[in-house]
Amino acid sequence: MLNYQYVTPQQLAGFEKYKYSAVDTNPLSVYVMQHLWNWxxxxxxxxxxxxxxxxxxFLMILLNYFLLSYYDWNFTASAPGGSHAPNWVWxxxxxxxxxxxxxxxxxxxxxxxTQSSSPLGELFDHGLDSWATSLFTLSLFSVFGLAAEREVxxxxxxxxxxxxxxxxxxxxxxxxxxxVLYLPWGYDxxxxxxxxxxxxxxxVGVEAWYRPLPFGYFFTDILIAMVIGCCAFLSxxxxxxxxxxxxxxxTLERNSTYEGLLPLASPALLFTLxxxxxxxxxxxxxxxxxxxxxxxxxxxxxNVTCRLIICQMTNTRSxxxxxxxxxxxxxxxAVSTGLLVQSELILLVGYTVLVTIAHVHYxxxxxxxxxxxxxxxxxxxEKRHQE
Length: 387
Description:
Elements: H1 9-17, E1 22-23, H2 27-40, H3 50-71, H4 87-113, H5 119-140, H6 154-178, E2 181-182, H7 185-204, H8 219-248, H9 257-261, H10 265-280, H11 285-288, H12 290-314, H13 325-336, H14 344-374
Parallel strand pairs: 1-2
Helix pairs in contact: 1-12, 2-4, 3-4, 3-5, 4-5, 4-7, 5-6, 5-12, 6-8, 6-12, 10-12, 10-13, 12-14
């Protein structure tokens, strides 16, 4: 069951030649956070595998997401009159968020420290990041949840999630074209902001975020402005500029515009199908089941992006069409034509289960395949025995 070969022989050969190349120009990261990470990584015992740090951080984010789901399934608990989560939950969320941020920041340093850097480690890191991006976002929605007085609807949450996922995608599409990972400025800013919001919520309560600011604005408006601003004025311009510079210097990895744009085909179709489903849903599926729908969005996006990450690391051609979009297209077609209207929730549950199982299976199989090919263990510094 876990022996399916997702990684092609051509991609395996590409992993053997892969060299990590990244540029970090974020002042917050370079001048502040890196000094903290350099100090923290020295505390980590040398026998611990870097991937164990990465996975521990991801598990903290995942468990925090499930904890908030328990107290706030429909993103309404924090609203005035709602059954608020205990303040200790927000404190724990702040601790989990910053701890995961720290572990994600020191895993590469620890890999170099133990001389165990590998393409598998980078893929493991960025693959989990592609899933954690949606988990971070959905967890924050429990603080700034649905509220009629602030005109925050389920469609608002969906739009914010799409913008954040697009920002993550841009970094890896950029590397697919340039061969260099330019670390996004928004990441460090978002992690510090998330931690601060959770800790303040634990101290003053989530009610504080619902009090109007001068000129009738709310803290939610600031959050939305930050998300859109980081994408529109930081990530997108930086990505386009770096690709332009690579083309100008004749260092682009792709020989044609078609090849360069190819990785955007599946994500564009994915978000088109999802938005169409939201718009034509007779059962108003997003409003009635926001957490289930948004979880499905995050997992599906992660699987699409993981395949792009493999292509950019191995310098191989991106696929045109992701097979998980086929059943999604069938569902959207059925909903659009009025067929199976009474079964829309069943379709959502079924597709969510499908993509979640498919994504976990994909991760396990790819990890096992690369572990065997590169002769290393995922969670141990020991070498595998040659078979």
